[in-house]
Amino acid sequence: MTTTPSTGPNILDPALIADPRGGFDLVREEAPVVLGRSADGTPAWYVTRYDDVRAVLGDPRFVNSPVSTAGTDAVANRDQMFEMLGISREFVPYMTSSILDVDGIDHVRLRKLVSRAFTVRRINALRPRVEEIAAALLDGLDGSVDLISEFAYPLPITVICELVGIPEADRPLWREMGAASNSIAPGAMGTAVRQMVTYTHDLIDQRRAQPADDLLTDLIRAQDEDGDQLSDVEMVTMVLALVTAGHETTANLIGNGALALLTHPDQLETLRREPELWPTAVNELMRWCGPVQIAQLRYASADVEVGGQVIAAGEAVQAVLVSANQDPRAYDEPERLDVTRRPAGRGDGHVGFGHGIHYCLGAALAKQEGEVALRSLFDRFPAMALEAAEQTWAAVPGMRQLASLPVKLR
Ligand code: HEM
């Protein structure tokens, strides 16, 4: 146990990051809605029970943009954080107007426009290509490898770049920029944001001149019934959101999922006997070791009671997804990985992809990639074994991310 209700959780706590599974158990049981600190150091209520997390994420009175709340210094705090991270003023709009940062009709408009380009047809049609990409990556592996850098990372970045329409030659650059954009090292994020924004504006200009069969071209074409086109800033912001949201998260699902199955050979055996269980297994892996530990910060736009605690207008809330997914009120034996576990009722049954209006836009793609990646990996290398007994976790706040996963393939 790494945090105590008396001090309150802090998402930057290295001990919490190093203990990605159990760190919230005591908080959830003893002080399920408790004041801690958010990544920028300001006070935030940590909400840790399943029902309360869903209540927060499903309640329009909790908003993603501090601008939407009255009487708060959250905007000032946010601007201060950007300054600290080296993001200059001209790039702030790209950081604050993404689909995940806006509320109400602004969000409805963006979600509708991107949903038109991000269609089920496009995702389903991509499956054979995802299989090909996975097979090609596995062809290149032998002996002892780090699964994170050699497989888990290259797969989703290739898929998302291909989907969006980022040329093959530029993908390594995007991988670097993506990693830097998550870095808390001084200056790294600012530089990465500047590079990604400039690159994407140029790419949009190219697609305007020469349309292609990709999501970027669809976005350029996308108009709602009122002829409400995306502005260039919004389009760039959307592309950045898709690439950054769809890259490391999925890589971490593949990495965490591989580790989970390698350390639970009985579960892997069940999947070998009953391969039709793979989609169920991926859903359970999302619950048991899903990569996103905590939802984006929410702000109360009015006084709202959650789990018996009044959260006052203007106060910030951290919905702890990883804790909700381990809540014994929602699951029998939540600590047990069970690839046959089926969600009760409709939907995922877990909150690893969030809940409510900001529910992950890329969930179907992520599940498809997770399934194809893990299944191809374990089919190709049935005798694969871990090389290290203990794994190292990367210090990325809010993310359950392995620094590496050394394995012996045969
Ligand atoms: C939203 C998780 C993959 C695009 C979210 C949210 C979560 C999440 C938890 C909601 C955050 C909140 O409400 O604060 C994940 C996980 C993934 C994954 C665990 C992989 C295993 C992807 C992929 C894409 C994507 C592949 C795109 C290609 C998005 C977008 C949103 C989002 C655009 C914002 C939706 C909105 O605000 O309406 N994701 N995601 N994600 N995700 Fe994902």
From TrEMBL:
InterPro entries: Cyt_P450, Cyt_P450_B, Cyt_P450_CS, Cyt_P450_sf. It comes from the Bacteria. The lineage of its organism: Bacteria, Bacillati, Actinomycetota, Actinomycetes, Pseudonocardiales. It comes from Pseudonocardia xinjiangensis. This is Cytochrome P450. Belongs to the cytochrome P450 family. Keywords: Heme, Iron, Metal-binding, Monooxygenase, Oxidoreductase.
